[in-house]
Amino acid sequence: MRILLLAPDERDLLGGLLRGAAPDAEVVRPVTRSRDELRALLPDVDILVGDWSGRLPLGAVEAEIGGHLRLLQQPGVGVNWIDVEAWRRAGVPVANTPGANAASVAEWAVVATASLSRSMGWAHDRLRAGEWPQEQILDHGCRDLGERRVGIVGFGDIGRRCAGLFAAFGCEVAYTARRPRSDAPARYLPFDDLLAVSDVLVLAVPLMPSTRGLIGASELARLPEEAIVVNVARGPVVRTDALVAGLRSGRLGGAALDVFDHEPPAADSELRRLDRVLLSPHVAGGSATARRRIYEMTAANVARVCHGAAPRWTL
């Protein structure tokens, strides 16, 4: 059994777990990490572990070459870089690690919101520049996190975790999803109603045709004055030009972004220059605990297939 591991793994954390879970298997890694090398390696392996960084997309061509594979396992939740339908047509099961990093992402969303509410990032930059912005911050009016009304778009594992953490701070929390959840620890509202009452709008939906460009100028205009937008979903869920316009005009109070429509954003991206914007390089779900959980789930699923069992968490 040969396992092709595409994910960056400089410390051999995932590779070590794979070898431990399937000691009779050989773990192979690409050297150049190019598409040509990937396609050359595919015919001679049995299981493919994907690339969470997105640098090696797995499309229809790869699916045709790898139609003999017993499993395509993505070490993470997002599968935007995989043509899942093409791999299904090729007869290859595709699996991910659902919920593995939900706590990490939710924690980032809450901490980022608190930071923006108290102007921490802006104050930090001013102090490093030799200023003392005490009066500006007090005049602008810092807000306690607990007085914020939080609206969550998407109520999967991450959205649910966000609801619990924000509620623990005393926030009034509501959510919208394709359908209300009877066991949800928050109030359900239709999408438009949610926008109207969200001092903090948290985006936690998967990227799909129905969510691409979901938040544009008209949606941002329905938010309360000085609302904060927190995107831990995928960059294209928000129209960047509309977000920048709302921030520049002062109508929006801030934005916390862990994801972007192009990653990394261009060096001259206006998002890099705006005040009251907190930027993070798509690492909200990358805590050491979350990564370990992702890798353990990945190795366990690969081991199941190596031992002749059906994989779990297939899409």
From TrEMBL:
Listed GO CC annotations: cytosol
Keyword field contains S-adenosyl-L-methionine: no
Superkingdom of this protein's organism: Bacteria
GO molecular-function terms, A-Z: glyoxylate reductase (NADPH) activity; hydroxypyruvate reductase [NAD(P)H] activity; NAD binding
UniProtKB keywords: NAD, Oxidoreductase
InterPro entries to which the protein is assigned, alphabetical: D-isomer_2-hydroxyacid_DH, D-isomer_2_OHA_DH_cat_dom, D-isomer_DH_NAD-bd, NAD(P)-bd_dom_sf
Claim: Oxidoreductase is one of the keywords in the record: yes
Gene3D superfamilies, sorted: NAD(P)-binding Rossmann-like Domain
D-isomer specific 2-hydroxyacid dehydrogenase NAD-binding domain residues: 114-284
Domain D-isomer specific 2-hydroxyacid dehydrogenase catalytic residues, every copy: 25-312
SUPFAM superfamilies cross-referenced by the UniProt entry: Formate/glycerate dehydrogenase catalytic domain-like, NAD(P)-binding Rossmann-fold domains
One Pfam family here: 2-Hacid_dh_C
CDD domains, per database record: 2-Hacid_dh_11 (cd12175)
Similarity comment text for this entry: Belongs to the D-isomer specific 2-hydroxyacid dehydrogenase family.
Name of the protein: Dehydrogenase
